[in-house]
Amino acid sequence: MQIVILKNAAEVAAYGADIFEKQLNRKAESVLGLATGSTPVALYQNLIEKNKQGEISFKDAVTFNLDEYLGLEGTHPQSYRYFMNEQLFNHIDINKDHTHVPPGNAKNPVEACQEYEAQIAAAGGVDVQLLGIGRNGHIGFNEPSSGLTSRTRVKTLTKETIDDNARFFGPDEYQPHLSITMGIGTILDAKKVVLLATGENKAEAVKATVEGPLTASCPASALQLHRDAVVVIDEAAASKLEHIEFYKHIEAENQKLQAHLASL
Question: What is the pTM of this model?
Answer without folding.
Answer: 0.93
